[in-house]
Write a structure and sequence with these properties.
By secondary structure, the chain is an alpha+beta fold. The chain contains 44 helices and 22 strands. InterPro entries: HMGCR/SNAP/NPC1-like_SSD, NPC1-like, NPC1_MLD, NPC1_N, SSD.
Length: about 1300
């Protein structure tokens, strides 16, 4: 880069502008054909540059050699006429322009204007008309020019500046104006920079006055070339001239429909609910008015209907209960089949309990043997992205061709610990201390492999490691830090990074190492600095990867120590190594495991204890405490829980056999699902069996068991089938985390259902035999004789104990006497519909507010050292991640395909890859592309330019010096075929140095894969970078934008192009997660509807169940928006769980409604008729089991999760599961009975309640129950 600065000095030597008044002594004559300066007369000092001589004589014809030299350098327009320059001036001019040519040659207009200015200043025969010497120096008998004025028209100056202001210098991705014009913002600043006398600049002063009164002088009439010139030979490429860029189509963002400030979906939901609410209000007002009008006419009939039956009447007379008038009269053949099948299954399991239990244990044991093949997948890239997805394939392609993306070790040093506010992070003492820290890092070695940083670091130029640090501005040397001048050095390097390059040679922009100060502010006031050590990455299993990770472990320990030192200095240090995130995630998992285990233990204990209290009343306990030892069902509860665990282990073992890896989500979540389903089914079976014991006390245990399972089996089948199929839908998802979870969950639920209707039935049989033999729970070998005396009522028999029904639990009494009657009142039903539809509408309205993403800060413990690092990364790092646009099987040897990707040549396609990327960079707010593109093909062709004499050299001469056709910007002289491959290989191995900054080794050595045998480019990439990404939304939109750009270019060029950045594989899921979520949930609801319609025999009831499930899910989604739970793979898994659990809440109530128990329906209040009576029956029959079996169990488990230290569990599990339990329970126990009473289908006869025998058993059951004393309030 040193020669780039020499160009400025050369420019100062040959360029002049508008100046002060003329001095007749030095340029007395101003006329055409007369010179002002000519030749070189010496220098001011021994090491100074040559100064021109004062010469006001006539221009002279040059000799042939000089003429050829002039035309070769300045063009054919100098082929005739006198000139005012000598050969030594042309030699100096050529040397200077050769360096400038590497910077601006990509834009022919800028180059022509630049060359024209220099050539005219040096050789024009009319110099005296626009150049006036004002100061001289006499030395060695010669008059040296020390100051002059040059006139340049505003038109030419403006045109010259405009043609060059947007030209890019490829290797450094910077603007050429920063090098040739000092970062000038207009043409006068540019010329002032070139004319200012200074070391490294112009050797004499050149003034550029805008007004000049000297007679006979005027600016030379030169017309500047425009970057979008009409002449295609001078027209610049899009990357250097925005005026020639094609207009890209506007981007229409989806999902932006709004009505005022509200999204359209939210507006539609609110509006629809408001209309329905108003309609309901009008209908209620009309109904009340009509009811008052009709009350008198119907009073007598209503009183007759509500009259209480006489105790003397036959209990079998239907006039006792109005509800029995509407008792279902039809049978449903599928239900009858299911009832019969489960009755037979129950009888077999009860008849042969030992065989059944042993068979089930063997079955589960064989499946569980798959645990020997059990593996947990922890690699996020293989968890969240399908191995067959585009993102996974693209990552594999990138890694195999260009190597795995490098490993970054990064720190932030911030001065924000003072209570008065943030302050400058840098000071002399801080710089000296930090340079010492970096020295310790360089000397650090891994504890195991003893590898040092130099052994594993990235070395793009061959020797020096890449360390991006402010210390590089001071050569990593504390002696270079001036106590008084360090701020000036910092400002100079930040303004011109090319002058303060680090050891590895690439300029280091200030935004890469400093943060917390305005873009145009003083870098010395930055409140934060960041340092990055770049380490090579390697494939899994490579020994070098182990060395890198070993060194990173040592670095982590060192930085933890430096953190404490920084605190003592009043600073705060945050950091991350490449191994940090995985370690912290595992730490979070270990912490969560304890909470999860405690949660499950509490649910297990509750289920065991609650199950034991189903037949044990306080009254019996007080009469004879010994009875509790017999009636307790703790062992039965434990057995039920063991069956749940067996189903989980069997499912995991089964799919481990087939090589399906488990995930932490599976281990954490599946017990929650199976426990919810399993415990509820256990409660239902036990409760129904207790009722059968009362109604059929004289039958043997096997028959009673078969009756209980015959009634509850179809209900269990309904819920298990709906849940299994719903979960199994996830198996069709490509995302492994979701797919594997769905398969494991479906297997566990299905196996659990099988074990419950077989093994649990056998255990229940043995338990009942124990009870009837008065043996103690948990110690069945011990017979409790005192309990036997009480139960036998003194006659020594056990049959008499069943003549007295056990007391109902307080919960059952509350539901039967108070809750169900009040819920089914007309006014209450109207309120329930209004309230629940309101929640539903609110949930729909909140759907657009759901955000996408999973912040890494959520996935790690709250006390992790990575939390401050991620905060600082978003707050202070003002650079985005690199992004590569990768070509596959690019035939670069063909001119057509070269033109599809290049940008700096006139025949490049307007919508070529690099041109499109340049245009997208100019709308970074939507494209998220912020840096110019590093185009290897453009710089390769520039490297071939014979004017760059130190670049491509063969046989001691420029490669294309005598080429026909010559190298030119129309690409007609560019290589093709074998020649292209030959020179490309030379370019990729050409060193990048001051003599040839365009050398491709450092910038593109690993960016292009060449297949010399097939003469093609199997893989190459074009590098740019994203704008700073500070949120999950930014990352998602950046990925979507890059994908859009690549697809558009591929469509327009026919090339195969894809974008790649290190974070893309983690955000690929968000391109489809919304549609995937909608598809899975809708498919699950559709499956539930079909299963319900088939097993319940009613489309109406199936529709009500499906609607209830939809309302639960929508309400949960709305709660997610309110509680800040974003949509990602974790929450998608939870939503699938929610569908399954919601079905479990609803299935048993729906079936009890469709097949009402005669025993319960005969106890319905006389005011209930038809659907109301069946809804009351359903609640009274299974409502208590649903509440105690699922709701309370889940609430206890979820409550414990609230104490987790992990944000991911607190947000994605505790919050979502709490919403699930609340909404599912409220909908199942409140909304569903109301909806069924309003819209439910026609019921069917329950086979277990049909026939004379069942009628007599029902009478016996009702006779043993205490009479109701609750009132019959109107509704």
């Amino acid at each position: 880069m040193t020669r780039l600065l020499q160009l400025v000095a050369a420019g100062g030597l040959f360029l002049a502008d508008l100046g002060s008044a003329a001095d007749e002594l030095y340029t007395p004559k101003h006329e055409a054909g007369r010179c002002a300066i000519r030749g070189n007369c010496g220098s001011k000092t021994f090491f100074g540059s040559q100064l021109p001589c004062v010469d006001n004589n006539l221009a002279e014809e040059p000799d042939d050699k000089t003429r050829k030299q002039l035309t070769d350098l300045c063009g054919p327009k100098w082929a005739s006429g006198p000139v005012c320059c000598l050969p030594e001036q042309l030699d100096a001019l050529k040397s200077s322009l050769s360096t400038a040519n590497q910077i601006i040659s990509s834009c022919p207009a800028c180059k022509d204007n630049f060359y024209n200015l220099f050539c005219s200043f040096t050789c024009s025969p009319d110099q005296s008309l626009f150049i006036n010497v004002t100061k001289t120096l006499e030395k060695n008998g010669k008059t040296l020019v020390t100051e002059l004025d040059q006139l340049i028209s505003k038109e030419y100056g403006t045109g010259f500046y405009n043609s060059c202001k947007d030209v890019k210098f490829g290797p450094t991705n910077s603007k050429a104006m920063d090098l040739i014009g000092g970062g000038a913002k207009n043409y006068t600043q540019m010329l002032k920079f070139l004319g200012q006398e200074r070391f490294g600049g112009s050797p004499f002063q050149i003034n550029f006055p805008t007004k000049y009164e000297e007679p006979g002088m005027e600016a030379r009439p030169m017309a500047p070339k425009k970057c979008n010139d009409e002449d295609p030979n001078f027209r610049c490429a899009c990357i250097d001239c925005p005026d020639v860029c094609p207009a890209l189509p506007d981007i229409e963002e989806s999902g932006l429909c709004h009505v005022g400030a509200l999204p359209c979906l939210s507006f539609a939901s609110i509006f629809t609910y408001s209309v329905l609410l108003f309609t309901l209000f009008v209908a209620l007002v009309g109904h009340v008015a009509w009811r008052k009008h009709a009350r008198r006419r119907t009073e007598r009939l209503r009183l007759l209907t509500d009259a209480a039956p006489s105790d003397d009447e036959d209990e079998g007379d239907l006039t006792q209960n109005g509800a029995m008038f509407d008792r279902p009269q039809k049978t449903y053949i599928i239900n009858t089949w299911c009832d019969s099948a489960f009755s037979r299954l129950g009888h077999v399991a009860a008849r042969f309990p030992a065989i059944t239990i042993v068979t089930c244990v063997l079955f589960a044991g064989i499946l569980s043997a798959g645990w020997f093949h059990f593996e947990i997948e922890q690699d996020p890239a293989r968890l969240w992205v399908s191995p067959t997805s585009a993102a996974a394939e693209e990552k594999a392609f990138f890694d195999s061709n260009f190597g795995p993306f490098f490993r970054a070790e990064k720190i932030f040093l911030v001065n924000d610990t003072d209570s008065s506010g943030p302050g400058p992070v840098l000071s002399y003492d801080t710089l000296i201390w930090w340079i010492g820290v970096e020295k310790r890092v360089r000397e650090l070695t891994g504890p195991t492999t003893k590898s040092a940083f130099k052994d594993i670091c990235l070395k793009p130029t061959g020797d020096a490691c890449v360390v991006q640090s402010v210390a590089a501005y001071f050569q990593d040397d504390p002696d270079s830090v001036d106590p008084d001048g360090w701020e000036a050095t910092l400002r100079k390097c930040a303004a011109s990074p090319v002058e303060c390059r680090p050891e590895y040679g690439q300029p280091l922009e200030s935004n890469m190492i400093l943060g917390g100060y305005p873009e145009s502010g003083d870098p010395a006031t930055a409140t934060a600095m960041t340092v990055t050590w770049v380490v090579n990455n390697y494939p899994e299993g490579d020994d070098l990867l182990a060395k890198a990770m070993d060194w990173e472990e040592a670095l982590k320990n060192l930085l933890l120590e430096v953190q404490e030192t920084a605190k003592d200095r009043g600073l705060r240090l945050s950091f991350s190594t490449e191994i940090s995130l995985e370690q912290e995630l595992n730490k979070s998992t270990n912490t969560d495991a304890k909470i999860i285990v405690i949660s499950y233990i509490i649910m297990f204990l509750y289920a065991s204890i609650a199950l034991g209290s189903t037949s044990l009343s306080v009254k019996d306990f007080l009469r004879n405490p010994a009875i509790s030892l017999v009636d307790s069902k703790f062992t039965l509860g434990v057995a039920g829980i063991v069956i749940v665990l067996m189903s989980i282990t069997a499912s995991i073992g089964l799919f481990s056999w087939v090589g399906l890896k488990a995930t932490l989500i599976i281990i954490d979540v599946i017990p929650f699902i199976v426990l919810a389903v399993g415990v509820d089914n256990i409660f239902l079976i036990v409760h129904e069996f207790e009722r059968v014991n009362i109604s059929h006390p004289d039958e043997v245990v096997e028959v009673r068991i078969s009756r209980a399972l015959g009634r509850m089996g179809p209900s269990i089948l309904f819920s298990a089938l709906a849940e299994t199929i719903s979960f199994a839908l996830g198996a069709f998802v490509g995302m492994p985390a979701v797919r594997n979870f769905a398969i494991y969950a479906a297997g566990a639920v299905f196996i659990n259902a099988i074990l419950q209707v077989t093994m649990f039935i056998s255990v229940l049989t043995l338990n009942q035999l124990r009870v009837e033999d008065s043996r103690a729970d948990c110690f069945p070998c011990i017979q409790v004789k005192s309990a036997r005396v009480h139960l036998s009522s003194g006659n020594g028999g056990v049959g008499s104990r069943f003549q007295e029904a056990p007391e109902e639990s307080l919960l059952q009494q509350f539901i039967r006497k108070s809750y169900a009657p009040r819920l089914l009142g007309k006014k209450v039903k109207a309120a329930v519909v209004v309230i629940f539809l309101g929640f539903f509408a609110a949930g729909i309205a909140l759907i657009p507010e759901i955000e996408l993403g999973l912040d890494q800060r959520v996935a790690i413990p709250d006390d992790s050292y990575l939390i401050p690092y991620f905060n600082d990364l978003y707050d202070y790092f003002d650079a985005g991640p690199p992004v590569y646009f990768v070509t596959r099987e690019f035939n670069g040897t063909d001119r057509k395909h070269q033109q599809q990707v290049c940008a700096r040549y006139t025949t490049c396609q307007q919508l070529s890859l690099t041109n499109v990327l340049e245009q997208e960079r100019k709308r970074a707010e939507v494209s998220y592309i912020s840096s110019p593109t590093a185009s290897w093909i453009d710089d390769f062709f520039q490297w071939l330019n014979p004017d760059n004499e130190q670049c491509c050299v063969e046989n001691r001469r420029p490669c294309f010096a005598k080429r026909d056709p010559a190298w030119n910007i129309t690409m007609s002289g560019m290589p093709e075929g074998d020649e292209f491959v030959h020179y490309l290989n030379k370019f990729l191995t050409s060193p990048t140095n001051d003599d040839c900054p365009l050398g491709g080794l450092a910038s593109y050595g690993s960016a292009v894969v060449v297949d010399s045998e097939r003469d093609t480019i199997p893989a190459s990439h074009f590098r740019t970078s994203h704008s700073p990404l500070r949120s999950q939304e930014d990352f998602i939109k950046a990925y979507a934008s890059a994908r859009r750009i690549a697809n558009d270019v591929s469509a327009s060029t026919g090339l195969e192009i894809f974008p790649y950045s290190i974070f893309y594989i983690f955000f690929d899921q968000y391109s489809t997660i919304v549609s995937l979520t909608a598809t899975l949930l809708c498919s699950a609801v559709a499956i539930i509807f079909v299963v319900a319609a088939v097993l319940l025999g009613s489309v109406l009831t199936a529709g009500v169940v499906a609607l209830t499930v939809v309302m639960v899910i929508v309400d949960i989604i709305g709660a997610m928006a309110v509680m800040g739970v974003s949509l990602n793979a974790v929450s998608l898994v939870n939503l699938i769980i929610c569908v399954g659990i919601a079905v479990e809440f609803c299935a048993h109530i729906a079936r009890a409604f469709m097949f009402p128990s005669r025993t319960f329906m005969e106890r319905a209040k006389n005011r209930f008729r038809g659907r109301d009576a069946r809804a009351w029956t359903a609640l009274a029959n299974v409502g208590g089991s649903v509440f105690s079996g699922i709701t309370v169990t889940k609430l206890l488990g979820v409550f414990v999760l609230g104490f987790t230290r992990s944000k991911i569990f607190e947000i994605y599990y505790f919050r979502v599961w709490l919403a699930l339990v609340v909404f599912a329970a409220s909908h199942a126990l409140v909304f569903l009975p109301v909806a069924l009473s309003l819209l439910g289908g026609e019921g069917y006869i329950d086979p277990e309640s049909d026939g004379l025998e069942e009628d007599l058993a029902s009478r016996r059951y009702r006779a043993l129950l205490p009479e109701d004393t609750d009132s019959e309030d109107e509704y």
